[in-house]
């Protein structure tokens, strides 16, 4: 197919004397559009298309209900100070209290630190089990229903199973390739994984006695193994990552790396007073590239994960002007306490850096067609720039720009 497109494009170029890149892009978007039409049932009979649309509507409704159940989940655990032994002071200070105990919300922002730092195995298990049951029996029923509906949907479109339908737009193209990859990795890594797991099990025996090792122990004993290996208190590292300094350093790094300029826009209507808006400029040409919103602080009812949402794709308009892209980065960073900027764990720094890489990827693109703008790539391929760029978090020059002892208050620098 790819060779046919190239040959066709070359013929068009020779006949019409049109730039080959433009011809290739037009051919590619035609192929992509045809494939999208096919995945949406264009080849089906009218009766089967109606059946497909009904299935899709039902699937979409269940997906939404599943996410709503997760988002509406507001339960918490009441735990005493002794049950939270090992937790950093600033974590406990940020928690509300009830009946003399700490209220630990079952959000990823609160659950992960407990699983990493809490010395009490029963607490880790209690937290892990409660968090794993978010959505409850309602979501289990939804998942069971979705499995059946998705399989029926895929079969209707001519796919062997839903996995093949879902994987087709991504780089592996088929579920068979995924399974082959996983089997190959399993063969190569099983021995290493078992050796490392035994190290973690031995650590648990030393600290907690001959207790069974569970999934809830994994993060805690990985941290303990790291501390033994490098003689470092991982919890202390957090003292050097105030959220304000991390953000200002991160923005400076991306401006330097890609010759960009971020200008904060004041006096603009936003959905919350903690949201900040920036325009992005090419530092050399002074061309406006796009906009991004920073919505990084936690608040009640907000989406509970760190991610990037595209608000507008970039493209070249028919009148020759360019529509600039826009995106928002969402996170659940803690707010300041005692007049000091709140602190981030290093994995949170890396995650924030990873997601902001998506923002820069999206905003900096110069796509001709909206279909290929920024993050509108194969879902797995779109992760590659961020996976590469997050390695800057481990470079000394970057760490110096994003870190500093937490005393004092830091503002984002332009």
From TrEMBL:
GO terms for biological process: proteolysis. Gene3D superfamilies: Collagenase (Catalytic Domain), Neurolysin, domain 3. Keywords: Hydrolase, Metal-binding, Metalloprotease, Protease, Zinc. One of its GO terms (molecular function) is metal ion binding. SUPFAM superfamilies: Metalloproteases ('zincins'), catalytic domain. Coiled coil: none annotated. Binds 1 zinc ion. Its cofactor is Zn(2+). The keyword Protease applies. Residues 115-404 form the Peptidase M3A/M3B catalytic domain. InterPro entries: MetalloPept_cat_dom_sf, Neurolysin/TOP_dom2, Pept_M3A_M3B, Pept_M3A_M3B_dom. It holds the Pfam family Peptidase_M3. Belongs to the peptidase M3 family. This is Putative thimet oligopeptidase.
